[in-house]
């Protein structure tokens, strides 16, 4: 009888520390390598590497036919991307700031979002529009807006906003591989705020699955994108006071993880919804409606929302406008004291 050697354990996944902008760059690089139909383009994304250097080095590696600059025309960028999709390509278009999306709005909502439906499934629009979003960098009115709610209102679009390097890479790779148009909002104040270990092997993160950042039983805090570090800080302050908060990062808004949200709020009976977009017609209003519709008789307190103010983004009052830990804690106190 021949003795068999014990089976060797599989090697641990290789990881390397990346910040959010590096994770986005790596996701595009891997997808350019994987699929020759993937193209990356936008204003200054070629030799310059984009205003935030998200595409740095990609043109040098893949050439100017796959990574290239465009004119300063968002309508043209989006319109060209739609045409590329019909020809079988997978464009990743960068809009330099989310505030600049509006010239391309008609192309996004009237063309990209509707091609699959108006053609009876004959054509698809597998495009990704990447764009830096939100405040926190003293960009003022035209470089700090959070317009995601405009696009969550449009059937046919997927809407994503990651808050960590790991999520940014996995969600962007998933977005590039989908057959539907994806609005990929990147919280620019988190681009270089921290690093985490990100796998070097291929992985994707499915849409519609929230991340539970902290488990608790007393109150649920829900956010997405740039507010998440402040949500975590507020949650840690609550824990120091003996309160057990549960923290949910939605990650994707369309689709959003109703099951995770409802399960958490059913457990805690209290919820605070946090985002930096203006309060009126905020996407979190939809989340609040679903919570009260499904869990009205189980709630221990009304839903509380913390958001930006219904004003143009103030250059001089950047930190006042954004929901910080103090505003989140006041909202939590209101809920817990109800």
From TrEMBL:
What the entry lists under SUPFAM superfamilies is as follows:
Thiamin diphosphate-binding fold (THDP-binding) (SSF52518), TK C-terminal domain-like (SSF52922)
Q: Name one GO molecular function term.
A: oxidoreductase activity
Q: Please provide an example of a Pfam family that matches this protein in its UniProt record.
A: Transketolase_C
SMART domains in the cross-refs:
Transket_pyr (SM00861)
Q: Which cofactor does it need?
A: thiamine diphosphate
What CDD domains does the annotation carry? TPP_PYR_E1-PDHc-beta_like (cd07036)
Every Transketolase-like pyrimidine-binding domain range: 18-193
Q: Which domain of life is it from?
A: Bacteria
InterPro entries recorded:
THDP-binding, Transketo_C/PFOR_II, Transketolase-like_Pyr-bd, Transketolase_C
Sorted keywords for this record are: Oxidoreductase, Thiamine pyrophosphate
Keyword Signal in the entry? The reply is: no
| Subunit description | Heterotetramer of two alpha and two beta chains. Directly associated with ODBA in the E1 complex.
**How is this protein named in the record?**
2-oxoisovalerate dehydrogenase subunit beta
């Amino acid at each position: 009888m021949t003795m068999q050697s014990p089976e060797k354990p599989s090697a641990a996944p290789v990881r390397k520390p990346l910040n959010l902008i590096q994770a986005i760059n790596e996701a595009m690089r891997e997808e350019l390598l994987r699929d020759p139909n993937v193209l990356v383009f936008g204003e200054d994304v070629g030799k310059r590497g984009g205003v935030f250097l998200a595409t740095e080095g990609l043109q040098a590696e893949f050439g100017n036919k796959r990574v290239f600059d465009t004119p300063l025309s968002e309508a043209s960028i989006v319109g060209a991307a739609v045409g590329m999709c019909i020809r079988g390509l997978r464009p990743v278009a960068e809009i330099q700031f989310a505030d600049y999306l509006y010239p391309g709005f008609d192309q996004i909502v009237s063309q990209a979002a509707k091609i699959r439906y108006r053609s009876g499934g004959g054509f698809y629009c597998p495009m990704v529009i990447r764009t830096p979003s939100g405040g926190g960098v003293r960009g003022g009115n035209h470089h700090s807006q959070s317009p995601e709610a405009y696009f969550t209102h449009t059937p046919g679009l997927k809407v994503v906003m990651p808050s960590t390097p790991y999520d940014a890479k996995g969600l962007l790779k998933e977005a590039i591989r989908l057959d539907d148009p994806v609005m990929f909002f990147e919280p620019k104040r988190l681009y270089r705020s921290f690093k985490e270990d990100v796998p070097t092997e291929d992985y994707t993160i499915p849409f519609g699955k929230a991340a539970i950042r902290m488990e608790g039983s007393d109150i649920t805090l829900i956010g997405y994108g740039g507010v998440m570090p402040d949500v975590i800080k507020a949650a840690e302050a609550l824990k120091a006071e003996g309160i057990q908060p549960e923290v949910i990062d939605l990650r994707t808004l369309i689709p959003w993880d109703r099951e995770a949200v409802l399960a958490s709020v059913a457990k805690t009976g209290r919820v605070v919804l946090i985002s930096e977009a203006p309060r009126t017609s905020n996407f979190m209003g939809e989340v609040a409606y679903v919570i009260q519709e499904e869990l009205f008789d189980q709630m221990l307190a009304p839903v509380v929302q913390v958001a930006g103010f219904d004003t143009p983004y103030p250059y001089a009052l950047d930190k006042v406008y954004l929901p910080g830990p103090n505003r989140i804690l006041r909202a939590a106190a209101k809920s817990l004291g109800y």
